[in-house]
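Example 9 (inverse folding). The structure is encoded as follows.
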């Protein structure tokens, strides 16, 4: 009898440890598509970064792309007829499509986020559209194994997966749209990295180590300006972790404790074209989960404004290392109350910052 009671208590304890009910879980982590929820691909996988296995499976699934040159686009049609209205733009070679129906008449019904840019005829800025395309224009590509990237617009982080594991997290900026420039919004969806374009300059803004994944949308280091021969990153690093770009994805330059930054990404990926990069849309209703209060954090008890995710951090001078531990749950207390998250080691956001993001997405 005692055994049964103990077993029952264990089951109850496990149930209580689960932070979300199934219904809440669905609301927190919707899938990109509302159609055909059977596969393991991008469109069917819930946007839950904590489920590493599901995310890895998704990153390794084949991608359906439109055949052709990586700096060209194809329209999707409203009807299975090339004289019908165009409803969306797709970048050839790199942009993934969700095939909803393969028809007998040579056409397929697909969905994707429209890659409409400022000069596109179709003005469906980052809209999830459904349309028709000729089936013989499509091909299936198996992504390169080893690495996969998840960009989450909701938390402005890039998650790097290596060999099935979450390897590291970097702070990013995706596109900041406004009324005049709605096309600045980074287009969501799944993509293949197709070209190591390297450094480029646009209107005095220098971006190093660019990797092309969607025509004009490029993954690159946080930009810098050059004054008197010196690189200055201040202006653009100040807004990392927030939307700020014209559509490109800006990636952290400062090294995490593992030595990860855009230079690391460039060195690993520039020779690995067809690595998959997915972008999760910050759909209304999506929420960031709260952080376990027992999560260890670190600080410099001799000064410094930041809290850290690790005992050793490149953002702190060596004489102050190792840093002193405390917990996430103590962030509201002295002397941790005024500390801000370190831009090197990417600790979790403060609870009030998480609330702010969540309230804006209710
Ligand atoms: Zn740090």
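The amino acid assigned to each position is listed next.
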């Amino acid at each position: 009898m005692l055994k049964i009671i103990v077993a029952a208590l264990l089951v109850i304890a496990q149930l209580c440890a689960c932070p979300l009910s199934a219904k809440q879980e669905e609301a927190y982590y919707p899938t990109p598509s509302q159609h055909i929820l059977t596969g393991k691909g991008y469109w069917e996988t819930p946007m839950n970064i904590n489920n590493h296995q599901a995310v890895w499976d998704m990153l390794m699934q084949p991608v359906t792309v439109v055949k052709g040159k990586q700096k060209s686009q194809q329209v999707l049609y409203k009807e299975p007829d090339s004289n019908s209205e165009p409803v969306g733009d797709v970048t050839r070679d790199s942009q993934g499509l969700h095939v909803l129906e393969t028809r007998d008449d040579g056409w397929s019904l697909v969905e994707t986020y429209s890659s409409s840019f400022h000069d596109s005829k179709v003005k469906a800025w980052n809209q999830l559209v459904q349309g028709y395309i000729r089936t013989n224009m499509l091909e299936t590509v198996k992504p390169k194994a080893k690495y996969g990237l998840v960009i989450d617009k909701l938390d402005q982080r890039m998650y790097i997966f290596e060999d099935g594991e979450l390897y590291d997290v970097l702070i990013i900026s995706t596109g900041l749209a406004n009324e005049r420039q709605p096309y600045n919004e980074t287009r969501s969806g799944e993509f293949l990295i197709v070209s190591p374009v390297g450094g480029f300059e646009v209107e005095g803004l220098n971006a190093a180590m660019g990797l092309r994944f969607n025509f004009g949308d490029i993954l690159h280091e946080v930009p810098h300006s050059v004054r008197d021969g010196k690189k200055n990153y201040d202006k653009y690093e100040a807004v990392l972790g927030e939307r700020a770009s014209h559509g490109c994805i800006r990636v952290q330059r400062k090294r995490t404790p593992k030595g990860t930054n855009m230079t690391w990404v460039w060195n690993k990926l520039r020779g690995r074209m067809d690595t998959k990069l997915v972008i999760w849309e910050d759909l209304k209703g999506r929420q960031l989960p709260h952080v376990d209060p027992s999560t260890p954090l670190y600080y410099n008890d001799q000064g410094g404004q930041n809290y850290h995710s690790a005992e050793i951090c490149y953002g702190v001078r060596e004489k102050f290392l190792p840093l002193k531990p405390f917990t996430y749950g103590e962030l509201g207390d002295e002397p941790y109350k005024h500390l801000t998250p370190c831009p090197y080691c990417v600790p979790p956001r403060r609870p009030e910052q998480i609330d702010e993001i969540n309230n804006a997405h209710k």
